[in-house]
Amino acid sequence: MIQRKMILNDVLESIESKAVEGSLQTEITGVCIDSRQVMPGSLFVAIRGTQTDGHRFIDTALERGAAAILCEDKGWQDDAKCVMHDGRYPVIVQVPSTNAVVGNVATAFYGHPSKDLTLVGVTGTNGKTTIATLLYNMFRQMGHRCGLLSTVCNYIDGEPVPATHTTPDAIELNMMLRRMADAGCEYVFMECSSHAIVQQRIGGLQFKVGIFTNLTRDHLDYHKTVENYRDAKKAFFDMLPKGAFALTNADDKNGLFMVQNTKATVKTYSCRSMADYRGRIIEEHFEGMYLEVDGREVGVQFIGRHNLQNLLAVYGTARLLDKEPEDILLVMSTLKSVAGRMEPIASPEGWTVIVDYAHTPDALENVLKAIHEVLDGKRAQHPASSTQHSTPKIITVCGAGGNRDRGKRPLMAQEAVKQSDRVIITSDNPRFEDPQDIINDMLAGLTPQQRKKVLTIIDRREAIRTATMMAERGDVILIAGKGHEDYQEICGVKHHFDDREVVQEITGAYPSAR
Questions:
Q1: CB 509 within 8 A of CB 345
Q2: Count of CB atoms within 10 A of residue 91's CB?
Q3: Mind giving me the DSSP string for 262-279?
Q4: Which of 167, 293, 302, 489 would be a feasible disulfide site paired with 279, CB 3.0-4.6 Å?
Q5: CB neighbour burial string for 3-41, b if at least 16 within 10 angstroms, e if fewer
C-alpha cells in the first residue's frame, strides 16, 4: 500500500460540509471505506452501500485508530464511543452524501493521479473488456507504458494485479492510478461499469476519451429499469469536460442519446452508416476476418460484426490520441482476442468449440450471429461440398447467473433456441440460488415446440461432455456465459472451473492458433 500523509483540509478541498467537529489541520495517513482496513491516522468514509451501511462500523474504525470520520449523519454517536483507541477525539465531518464525495476525496488524497495520465474510459453493456484490453495491448506495442483496469485483470504496465470488480472502489481505483502514474505510465484504459458510475467511484477523475459500446438489458437487479441503467451510462458522458472526446457507437440506438448533453467533442464509429470511423467485413473465417477500415484493408484475428465494432472503437480512440492510421492497422493485425471472448478451440474430430463470456441476450445473439456468418461464408465458398455433407449444426451450452436479473433468463433461452440446432441449458454461477430454479426460469420463455431442441443438465461439466458427444465434423459448439472465469460460484464458495480446461480434458482439443 502506498504510504501518504496529507492535511485533512487538503483532502476535503472540493467538499462542502454540513458540519465539522475538530480541526481540519489534522494529519491523515490514509482513506478507507472498509473499517477492517483502517490504520492509525486514517480517514474513514461511512458509505451507505447496497448491502451494508458504513455508519454501523464507525465504532470499529475508531477502535482501529481512525483520526477522522466522514459521515452523513451523527446518529451513530449515540451508540459509538467517540474516541480513538488512544483516548483522543476524532475529527467528524458531516456531508449530505458520502457516496457523492468519496471519489473526490480519494483522488485528492492520492494527488489527482488522473491529471498525470491520459485516461480512457469504456462503458456500455458489451465489449468493454475487449476494447480496453486491445487498447492497452496496442499502445504497449507502440512503445508506451500503460495501465489497464478491467474485468479480467488489472495491469500496471506489465505487472498483473488481480481484479475483483469491473471497476474498483474509489479508494482502490485512485491508489492504482497513483501507482500507474508513479510507474511512468502514460496511458490508462479502464472499464467503467454502471455500478461504478452511479456509486460515483469515478468521481473526480479526468478522462481524455470516453467510449460508448452499446446498451442492452443487464443489471436490472440493481438498476430496476432499463431507463435507469441507460441513464447511468449517460451520466459518464455528461461528466466529460470540454477538451475531452466522446466516442460513440452510431450503430446502437442509444449511441447519440449518450452524448447529447456532453461538453466533450463527439466522434462516431459505425459498420452500417455514416460515421467518423467506418468499417466493413470483406471475408470471415473462424480464424479471423479481412476488413476494410476507413478505406484501408487489414486482416485481424477476430470474428463477428460485434468485434468489428469493438475494433472500430479501438481504431477511433487511437486516432483521437494522435496515432497514424497505418501504424494503428499494422498493430491491429497482430492483436489477439481477449481470454474467453470468442475464443476458438479446434477438436481432433473436426468440430470447433467457441468459448465466450456472453451472459446477456444481446451478447448471446451477437456471438451466434457471428458463428452463422462464418458458416454461411464457408457454404458460399464451397457450395459443392455443402450438398455432399450434412449442414453443420450449432450446439449451444448456456445458463444464467443466480441472484441477478431474473427477467433476462427466458430471453437468454429464447435467443439460444432461435439460433441453435440444439441447446443444453446448464448451471452458470448459481450463487445462492437453486440451479434448477434458474433453469426453470429459462425454460419458462420457451414454447413446447422449442423445448424439443433443449436438454437440461445441471452439472456444467456433464453438459459440456454431452455437447461434445453430440457434435460431428464441421459442427460448432458454443459454450457461453463464463468465458475467462476459472471458477463456479456455488453457495458463496468459488470452486475451480474453467470451460476451456474442461473441453481440453474431455476431448484433447486445443486452442486454435491466432
A1: yes
A2: 20
A3: -SSEEEEEESSS--SEEE
A4: 293
A5: eeebebeebbeebeeeeeebeeebebbbbbbbbebbeeb
Decide: pTM greater than 0.85.
no
Strands (E), 328-486: 343-346, 352-356, 394-398, 422-425, 454-456, 476-480
59 touches 82 (CB < 8 A): no
Q: How far apart are CA 486 and CA 393, in angstroms?
A: 27
Q: Hey, what amino acid is at 415? A: E
3-state secondary structure of 355: strand
Q: Where are the alpha helices (DSSP H) in 248-360?
A: 255-258, 305-320, 325-332
Residue 513 backbone phi and psi in degrees, to 5: -70, 135
Q: Show Cβ contacts of residue 10 under 8 Å, excluding neighbours closer than 6 positions.
A: 108
Mark residue 224 as left, alpha or beta (left: phi above 0; alpha: psi -120 to 50; beta: remaining). Answer: left
Distance CA 395, CA 314 (A): 31
Beta strand 91-94 with 19-21 is: antiparallel
Bridge partner residues of 209 (DSSP)? 120, 245
Three-class SS state of 449: helix
Spatial distance between the Cα atoms of 114 and 174, rounded to a whole number of angstroms: 8
Q: What is the spatial distance between Cα 180 and Cα 116, in angstroms, rounded to a whole number?
A: 9
**DSSP letter string over 31-58?**
EESSGGG--TTEEEE--B-SS-BGGGGH
Q: Tens of pLDDT along the chain (514 residues)? A: 456 899 999 999 888 888 999 999 999 999 999 999 999 999 999 998 777 899 999 999 999 999 999 999 876 665 555 555 555 688 999 999 999 999 999 999 999 999 999 999 999 988 999 999 999 999 999 999 999 999 878 999 999 987 666 678 899 999 999 999 999 999 999 999 888 888 888 989 999 999 999 988 555 555 568 788 888 889 999 999 999 999 999 999 999 999 999 999 999 999 998 999 999 999 988 889 999 999 999 999 998 889 999 999 999 999 999 999 999 999 999 999 888 888 888 888 889 999 998 888 988 998 999 899 889 877 666 555 544 456 899 999 999 999 988 999 999 999 999 999 999 999 999 999 999 999 999 999 999 999 999 999 999 999 999 999 999 999 999 999 999 899 999 998 999 999 999 999 998 866 655 4
Rounded Cα distance between 213 and 132, Å, is 11
DSSP line for 112-174 = -GGGGSEEEEEESSSSHHHHHHHHHHHHHHTT--EEEE-SSEEEETTEEEE-SSSS--HHHHH
- Residue 185 backbone dihedrals phi, psi, to 5 degrees: -65, 140
